[in-house]
């Protein structure tokens, strides 16, 4: 008898200025995902801090580490895995834009650091290095952060080479984002992002789950946020989340 298809959820949250409020938003998404029978929930880029101009103010002291510990505890309490964006620190004071993997027992089991930084991000974050795959419950997962879906020429050979031999778990690419179809230029760019995600899905025979912010605090009048996509392994968009609205959407990941 074949194993049941994995069921994950996508969080598309409201953004807040404070760490405490973003943590509460994230935990609420995990609770909704667990109630929907998901084994895990993917959360967006810099989910714990928010992606806004006050982000540097949230990195002092131990508050961010404490928030991550509380999130891990919530995963253990709910019996659900989570993949969540937050800044992390490296050697020599480096700060990474990271996607952190937490298993259903509440243990951190992997990190992906964003390498394809925008010019503004590069003034604050340090680029990450090569990445591979993380075994997370019934899936084999990696993350491609926001505009990195345009970097398939670099990522595809790297991710192909890192695939573990003989692991037949469903492959999932988490795509945490902060993008919007806010004008004609941005709409064209978002379309290119989605085309890049579809190429990654086809070439790696993986599901792509996009977790995008539902709004911008820096530009509160902008619209076109949310609308995260689910891309099937054949490159087809199989689901689109709500636009300009918070959402938690369960997704069943049928075979490649």
From TrEMBL:
Molecular functions (GO terms): hydrolase activity
Top-level taxon of origin: Bacteria
Segments forming domain CN hydrolase: 6-255
Keyword Hydrolase found: yes
Keywords linked to the UniProt accession: Hydrolase
InterPro entries: C-N_Hydrolase, C-N_Hydrolase_sf
UniProt protein name: Nitrilase-related carbon-nitrogen hydrolase
Lineage: Bacteria, Pseudomonadati, Pseudomonadota, Betaproteobacteria, Burkholderiales
């Amino acid at each position: 008898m074949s194993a049941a298809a994995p069921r994950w959820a996508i969080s598309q949250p409201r953004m807040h200025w404070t760490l405490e409020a973003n943590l509460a938003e994230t935990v609420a998404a995990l609770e909704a995902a667990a109630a929907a029978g998901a084994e895990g929930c993917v959360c967006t880029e810099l989910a714990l801090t928010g992606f806004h101009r006050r982000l540097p103010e949230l990195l002092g002291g131990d508050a961010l580490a404490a928030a991550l510990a509380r999130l891990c505890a919530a995963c253990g309490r709910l019996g659900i895995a989570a993949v969540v964006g937050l800044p992390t620190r490296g050697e020599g004071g480096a700060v990474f834009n990271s996607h952190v993997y937490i298993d259903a027992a509440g243990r951190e089991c992997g990190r992906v650091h964003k390498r394809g930084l925008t010019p503004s991000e590069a003034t604050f974050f340090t680029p990450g290095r090569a990445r591979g795959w993380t075994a997370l419950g019934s899936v084999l997962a990696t993350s491609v952060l926001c505009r990195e879906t345009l970097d398939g020429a670099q990522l595809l050979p790297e991710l192909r080479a890192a695939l573990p031999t003989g692991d037949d778990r469903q492959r999932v690419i988490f795509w945490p984002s902060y993008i919007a179809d806010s004008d004609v230029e941005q709409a064209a760019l978002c379309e290119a992002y989605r085309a890049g995600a579809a190429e990654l899905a086809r070439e790696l025979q993986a599901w792509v789950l996009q977790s995008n912010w539902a709004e911008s605090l820096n530009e509160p009048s902008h619209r076109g946020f949310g609308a995260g996509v689910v891309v099937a392994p054949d490159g087809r968009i199989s689901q689109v989340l709500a636009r300009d609205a918070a959402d938690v959407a369960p997704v069943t990941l049928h075979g490649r």
